[in-house]
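# step 3/5: fold
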Amino acid sequence: MEEPTKSNLQEGKSIDLQSDGIDYLNEARKWSMFLAILGFISLGFILLAAIFMGVIFRLIGDDTLHSSFTIAMSVMYLVIGVLYFFPIYYLLKFSQKSRDAVRDHNSNSLSEAIGNLKSHYKFLGIMSIVMIVLYPLFLVVFFLMGAF
């Protein structure tokens, strides 16, 4: 089956959603809003962990190794928080634009919603590929560090 592309879609034609499709979109919108809210709450905990990890490890000890470890852990949690923000944001925007599309029967809002959903999955896909590549490298590095 051939995938639709901009070149093989005729100008002026559109896809109309039937009532079932609108109901499915509305239900997906509700769940995506729920997941986005949970994601932002989790993001808050990650950022709090980054802040408090630095404070708690500073109080435990003050040698140079401890200080370097503390900074590295805090920076790692901040990076995780920044990376975690984008898919949550795209999911939230999908939910908001889907709500507008369903409420106003606006196809432009629907297109923007689907664009945000595409961005959400594209970001997750790229991050998955990056992690698949990095995990074996981390295993080799940790193995070599353990050997010495």
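# step 4/5: annotate
The radius of gyration is 22 Å.
# step 5/5: archive (pending)
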